[in-house]
């Protein structure tokens, strides 16, 4: 990502994805209080039934705002979904090291590290899921020491997190081998991102590259994996490069139909354009547990593919789908009218344009447009 884009992300962070609140969490596992930062999605209060993915950020005092900015920027362009963002305060260097403590011989969390692990798994996450409308898709992120720590959650047969963002990780003993073994063994879908840079610490560069070599050979459809090595970045600046890359990787299926997707995939199909659209949103629900109406622009992309390939019968199926998602609008009748018009059945087309005229406008479709098309069909019937 170019510097100007990074600055834009930070600018959006300053304007706020939503207001950040600070809660003091009393933890038996930690033996005291710990501040957590929470930002709820802008539309959280609009629909009491909607659930949102959760992103838990360690090192919350300095990672929270960059993640917040990237999420706001991506959501503004409808490339990223709204997310419940939570950060854990670790504002003292000795505190983050204590939270991530592990045994040098076994490579497993011990003492304060084990307590912090249990705090997240048995106290904080249950609280968040009980208090907020959390969707099943959950992400955890960390940087260097805490990035190494988040991998301990992979050691469970059914990890409480579905996605991991590991920024320049300091890996515990033998993690270069243990992480690939766990990624290969875990049955449920796992999303995993790690990054380093040519200006990163040499030990971290070596470990992450060794880990990458072993993970990228895993042949598994349920593993979504990405590794970045940034040129010209440092141990700290790589964070601003990594965050949007990780989020866009994980949420790629959420994004609207792009020009490349249209040209490289959709238009090349011989048939099944509407089925492609259905499957795109079914995959979104299945993989990320996000339910949402099909975007109007995605409807228009499929419309364009149907017209380009002259597969006019598919307008019938597209009209049924439009009625399901935008039943009060003129979209469904418009597609039926399009089918009849292009098949030169102008009488039926004229009736459907008139029917559309009586319904609610949507997007670029207006009542004037439907009336004019109806009159045009009359002329063609003569």
From TrEMBL:
Family annotation (InterPro entries): AB_hydrolase_fold, Esterase-like, Mycobacterial_A85_antigen, TPR-like_helical_dom_sf
Coiled-coil stretches noted in the UniProt entry, renumbered to this chain: none
Gene3D superfamilies: alpha/beta hydrolase (3.40.50.1820), Tetratricopeptide repeat domain (1.25.40.10)
Domain of life the protein comes from: Bacteria
One Gene Ontology term of the molecular function aspect: hydrolase activity
Range of residues in the leader sequence: 1-20
Alphabetized UniProt keyword annotations: Hydrolase, Signal
Pfam assignment, any one: Esterase
The protein's name: Alpha/beta hydrolase
Highest classification ranks of the organism: Bacteria, Pseudomonadati, Bacteroidota, Flavobacteriia, Flavobacteriales
């Amino acid at each position: 990502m170019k510097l100007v884009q990074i600055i834009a992300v930070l600018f959006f962070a300053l304007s706020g994805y939503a207001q950040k609140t600070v809660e003091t969490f009393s933890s038996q596992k930690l033996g005291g209080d710990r501040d957590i930062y929470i930002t709820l999605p802008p539309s959280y209060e609009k629909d009491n039934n909607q659930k949102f993915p959760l992103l838990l950020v360690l090192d919350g005092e300095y990672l929270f705002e960059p993640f917040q900015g990237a999420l706001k920027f991506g959501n503004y362009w409808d490339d990223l979904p709204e997310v419940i963002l939570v950060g854990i305060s670790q504002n003292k260097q000795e505190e983050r090291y204590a939270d991530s403590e592990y045994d040098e011989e076994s490579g497993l969390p011990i003492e304060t590290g084990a307590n912090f692990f249990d705090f997240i798994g048995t106290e904080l996450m249950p609280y968040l899921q009980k208090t907020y409308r959390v969707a099943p898709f959950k992400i955890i992120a960390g940087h260097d020491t805490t990035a190494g720590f988040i991998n301990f959650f992979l050691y469970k047969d059914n990890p409480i997190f579905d996605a991991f963002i590991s920024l320049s990780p300091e890996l515990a003993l033998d993690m270069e081998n243990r992480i690939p073994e766990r990624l290969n063994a875990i049955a449920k879908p796992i999303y995993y991102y790690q990054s380093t840079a040519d200006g990163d610490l040499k030990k971290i560069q070596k470990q992450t590259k060794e880990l990458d070599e072993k993970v990228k050979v895993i042949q598994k459809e349920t593993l979504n994996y990405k590794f970045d090595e940034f040129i010209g970045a440092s141990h700290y600046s790589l964070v601003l490069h990594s965050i949007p890359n990780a989020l866009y990787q994980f949420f790629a299926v959420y994004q609207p139909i792009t020009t490349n997707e249209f040209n490289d995939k959709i238009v090349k199909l011989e048939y099944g354009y509407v089925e492609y659209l259905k499957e795109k949103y079914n995959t979104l629900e299945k993989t990320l547990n996000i339910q949402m109406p099909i975007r109007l622009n995605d409807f228009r992309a499929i419309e364009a593919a149907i017209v380009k390939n002259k597969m006019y019968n598919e307008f019938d199926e597209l009209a049924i789908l439009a009625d399901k998602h935008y039943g009060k609008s003129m979209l469904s009748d418009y597609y039926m009218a399009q089918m009849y018009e292009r098949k030169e059945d102008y009488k039926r087309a004229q009736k459907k344009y008139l029917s559309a005229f009586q319904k609610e406008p949507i997007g670029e479709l207006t009542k004037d447009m439907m009336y004019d098309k109806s009159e045009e069909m009359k002329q063609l019937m003569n």
